[in-house]
Amino acid sequence: TYSREQLAAMYAGEYEVWAIIAQLYQSATYGAPENTVYKDGGKVTLKIAPKPVYTVTFETEYGTAPEPQNVTKGENATEPEEPTDVAHDFQYWQTAESGQWYFTENTVANNTTLTAVWQPKNFVANFYEGSAFLTSTFVAYGSTITPYNYTKVGHNNVKWTLSNGDELTDTYTMPANDVNLYAQWEKNKYM
Known about the structure:
Layout: H1 4-10, H2 15-24, E1 29-31, E2 35-40, E3 43-48, E4 53-59, E5 69-72, E6 88-95, E7 99-100, E8 112-120, E9 122-129, E10 132-140, E11 155-162, E12 179-187
Parallel strand pairs: 4-8, 9-12
Antiparallel strand pairs: 1-2, 2-3, 4-5, 6-7, 6-8, 9-10, 11-12
């Protein structure tokens, strides 16, 4: 049993509780689906149902997803350790409904799924002629490598091959590591 002042101090900022307290002196008994107030003479009994607890689930396309969290309605979820992946950099968590999730600002109002947003990492494509280094370029994981535009007097049709001898084609995409490419030439044929 608490006085009006004690209730106000205990539940400051709680809209539902303030609505109940406002009704205390207008009605002998006030009932709400989750909260019940009884007035008996000068004493007030306030039974408050606990706030609901919701589950915050984390989904990642890459890496290992953090464990789900049980969070009381109106509170903040705890920011988990960032997931990692060899080919992608983690950017942030988001919801499908409202975009980027800020753990210190956004509060949980229902069951929530947070999805990891990723950006492909950049790796280096090195171009060589024999053992002579020509140039290098950064290429995002999964992107097509643009061949280096290189000419050699007396030769045509430069082809680029990987260290294993495979030819660089327009469908070859950057793996999750640096690659070395080597120039292969055809000599000009003169009639």
